[in-house]
Design goal:
With 252 residues, the chain is an alpha+beta fold. It has two domains: 4-141, Fructose-1,6-Bisphosphatase, Chain A, domain 1; 150-250, D-Maltodextrin-Binding Protein, domain 2, CATH 3.40.190.80. It has six helices and 14 strands. The chain has helices at 4-26, 44-60, 91-96, 177-185, 199-211, 238-251, and strands at 32-34, 41-43, 65-68, 82-89, 102-109, 112-120, 125-130, 135-137, 140-142, 154-156, 170-172, 191-194, 215-218, 232-235. A hairpin with a 2-residue loop joins strand 8 (135-137) and strand 9. Helix 4 (177-185) packs parallel to helix 5. InterPro entries: IMPase, Inositol_monoPase_Li-sen, Inositol_monophosphatase-like, Inositol_monophosphatase_CS. This is Inositol-1-monophosphatase.
Length: 252
């Protein structure tokens, strides 16, 4: 029997402990290497945090599956309980000493995200959500803004090329999709448009936004169905999403 509350309780403890590794690593020398290209960085801490999370979950739930950035990126999502892990979302920030990096952990059961946890221990921001139970920042409930007009909207982490930013209040690039989605969930941003990422970048943040009252669409504005697809448009309101899509379509 699936016990989401128990899974959440264990996962939260594991993430908080892994956060201590991230925080220590943030202040320490790093062994930096690259993966697919010269700007796709990985450190010993990415690998250590991921291994720590997987090992601890396997001790509790040996039959659970994993989709994780550094060690299990080729696993296909099934209906089995599957943990989707980004050990450090924002590795470049982590290397540079820029404090927007986090651990992102989600649990999918029956192809639906049930748990989302995003933890930035550097500035002590812990975003959490369980399906149907709201979204929280450091145990205080959060919700998206009610912005509908583009000229009052803040865009985060978006693809800015060919989009006229004079139509928006402003834009920010934080270097972490997970944090950007959570900032939308807490009302500090209004739109997040991302492409060319992976499921582990967005899975936890998607649930946190949905539980905070926001909407998540695919990048064309259609219904978001495939959680392995990280091309998404997230917004605080449907009207704002529609207005943004019209702006994007008029400028591409």
């Amino acid at each position: 029997m699936v016990d989401i509350h128990q899974y959440y309780s264990h996962a939260l403890k594991i993430v908080l402990e892994a956060g201590e590794i991230l925080l220590k690593g943030f202040k320490s020398p790093k062994e930096i290497s690259t993966k697919k290209n010269e700007k796709d960085f990985v450190t010993q801490y990415d690998k250590l945090i991921e291994k720590t999370i997987i090992d601890n979950i396997l001790q509790l739930y040996p039959d659970h599956k994993f989709i994780a950035e550094e060690s299990a990126a080729n696993i296909i999502l099934t209906k089995e309980p599957t943990w989707i892990i980004d050990p450090i979302d924002g590795t470049t920030n982590f290397i540079q000493g820029f404090p927007f990096c986090c651990i992102s952990l989600a649990l999918a059961v029956e192809n639906e995200i049930k748990i989302g946890i995003v933890f930035n221990p550097i500035i002590n921001q812990l975003f959490t959500a369980q399906k149907g139970e709201g979204a929280y920042l450091n145990n205080e409930k959060i919700q998206v803004s009610c912005t509908e007009d583009l000229n009052k909207a803040m865009l985060v982490e978006g693809i800015f090329t060919k989009i006229s930013l004079k139509n928006l209040r402003g834009s920010r690039v934080l270097g972490s999709a997970a944090i950007s989605l959570c900032y939308l969930a807490m009302g500090a941003a209004d739109i997040c448009y991302v492409k060319y990422l992976k499921c582990w970048d967005v899975a936890a943040g998607i649930l946190i936004i949905q539980e905070a009252g926001g909407i998540v669409l695919d990048s064309t504005g259609g219904e978001y169905k495939d959680i392995m697809n990280a091309d998404i448009l997230a917004a605080c309101t449907r009207k704002l999403a529609n207005n943004f899509l019209k702006l994007k379509n008029d400028n591409f």
